Amino acid sequence: MNYYELFKRENEEVEERLALYKERIHSMKAEESVPEPFQRYFLKTAEFIEKMYLLSETIKSGTDKTYSLEQLQELNRSIYEDVAGNAYEKSYANPSYAVAELGEEFGAIFSFLYTEIRGMIVYAYEGRMLEFSIMVELFIEVYNLFEQEELPELKEVKSVIYWFVSDYSDVTVTYRVREQLDPTLNFATDIIMNSDLQDMRYLYYYGEYITETELKTAQFLNTLEEETIEKIASAYTEGYRIGFINGNKDLSKKKVVNIRYSIGFERIIKKAIENFEKMGLKPAIYRAAVHTVNKRKHLKIGYFSTSPNKQYDYDHRADDALYLDKAFVERKLGVLRTAYEEYKELASVHGGPACLEIFGEEPFVPESKEEALKLNDKQQKIAVQYNNSAGEITNTYIKGEERSFTIIAFPIPEIGPEFEEIFQEVIKINTLDYKLYETIQQTIIETLDQGEYVEILGKGENQTNLRVALQPVTDITRETKFENCVADVNIPVGEVFTSPKLEGTTGLLHVTKVYLNELCYHNIKVEFKDGMITSYSCSNFDKEEDNRNYIKENVLYNHETLPMGEFAIGTNTTAYMAARKYNINDKLPILIAEKTGPHFAVGDTCYSWSEDTKVYNPDGREIIAKDNEVSKFRKEDISKAYFNCHTDITIPYDELQEIAVIKADGERVAIIQEGKFVLEGCWELNKPFDN
User: What pLDDT is stored for residue 516 in this prediction?
Assistant: First the structure.
């Protein structure tokens, strides 16, 4: 169904308003009622809005479906040209440029407004004309303020934006909840299932920025045999199914799976949808958010394409600084709760996400801009409170103890000239013999279960000196501290993990270079005392304050401290050596990187919101280390138990001096020394090193 048909009644209700707005926008071009330099800004933005009106009419009429590939590429270029590549340097979307042109008082606000208006691209493609109209309404309202004899006060402009975001959260937040749950919102599903995937024109029907990356990925997948596509899709969907089994959860209760992927992988996703349908699951597929009220920093959650400019995304990660206060949070939480109540039946049958991630992009090191909006200390605390409360609401309706997930990752052409060879290697990594790993990892677990704590020491430039305390086991014949992680929710195979005991977990974690959530960190150091972060630093920026803020914002998610929520030992030496072979260590996603050495997650445990669900290893023993001293607060005050973040930091094997288990009697048993497995029964893991 065409999305204009799906939203027909809603669109008809705003049709007259849109026509009036269109006339008003057009009339601005002949007016001189706004002083410079603001007049240039309003004219430039008005031109973009007129382009969006034309785009909307093109999509609604289906004219774009008659375009040649070259015509679609030109259309795509034209709607992203202002933020792509070097053009961003002189775009009003760039807060540095906006401030330079419009002044410190209004520059950042106008950059915010321009960025919000760019979301109209999505509304045009999806036929969501109500949201299209409210963006035009906001622009006109701000324009009217500047038509007065004197410039408006800053607080007047901020007030307009505040009430726009707050008042229309009934629309924006509610729709965001619905599109995460409702399979009938099938904009992307329709493209995947009903397009000719051999015809590259389909890539441009999303309205996302399309580059050679998406084209080459789709073209490459079209060269693979159907058997290979089925193998990849089955590893992905079976991981999801097995996750329910291993988590002791009933998949038969679920009717919806949320599929997240990057554009270009449609051939795999189409087969995955067919596999999920055989399990009784329909796909809910939603786009990464474009409206500030639904974004989570610079991260893209949903489906998306190559960013036209990652600095652009990063510059606008904290645009909510314009309106975030206690009253707004209460308003948004109220809307969120009401929306989930409205769609509670869909929420109750939602099984959780199935994510196909990508890697291989050129590593991104952001520039820290003074002109970009930032949350102040008070707002940081408010943001933390909101995330905690929103997490509670979500888990009330999509119960943590009943849902699962799976994640798999594949490279994209940006990884280099050996892309096709690397892709085949990753297929191998993602489909390794899990029975072999299950046996070896069980050997490691049996040693770990005898320990009181584990010591991790770095070597060379790595200064790690860390002691991780382990939860006590009452009956070792029936209970275990570590989960034997094979190919289920976290693909590929290759780790054993636990929720550490916080008391006694102390020392320094250091990695010379690591990528976390798409951002690079040089010499990241995190100090722990009794399992809680006490200090942190890195060497990305000249100013120590910038380094600390960088970590606090993007690793601690503005919390003052976080616990160590997970300790794991990765065993996938095949993946590690493949990365070394192709020199792509710095491009591995955390999903694979975490299997190539010990890793430590800061934030929630791996079992957050489902600690009371019994989980067993393949040997039949129950995993008892699902809680820690912080998560246990859920029984008293749930707001103190969760942080709604979980970031893995991995030390690569070549930076490891030793990982050793210390028993109650003081006996020391080494698992890894000088970057190699030395525990008896684990030597098979060293074969990739030797080869």
Answer: 87
